[in-house]
Write a structure and sequence with these properties.
The protein is 45% helix and 21% strand. With 155 residues, it is α+β, with helices and mostly antiparallel strands.
Length: 155
Amino acid sequence: MGKIKNFEFLFVILIFGFCILNFLGCSTVKELSKGALGVSTKVLEEGRKDAIKKDFNRDYDTCYKITKDSLNKIQAYIYAEDPSKNMIAIYVTESDTTPVGIFFKSIDKNNTTIEVSSPSTYARELISAKLWLGMEGKLKEEKISNEGTKKSFFE
């Protein structure tokens, strides 16, 4: 009988907690679930103040396409794309889950700013350097290790 009461108490606490979260707003619940799943982009958005930025004499769509091609070449793992935030969120590789955010800002019809944000200074510098090479057409495709798994940039 005591176990049933403990379960009922826990159930009431969970429902109460959910109601509080729901009262705080849908985005809070959404961000908490993303954080629990490890796919939140909040830390990347908050880190934009420290992002590495560079302006390119290319339109938004071209910058976006070249960036996606470059990410494919370096075998980065894209875990989120949010067109409303003009952002692509990646992990450095499938096995290295250091998050990096790439943000696009159209300056005008022919110019775009790209920002690279990450809690890791090394990842931010590494990915931005690779992307800048990609924008210049100088990025070489990364190799897959002999075991068939992608190597981490941090090895």
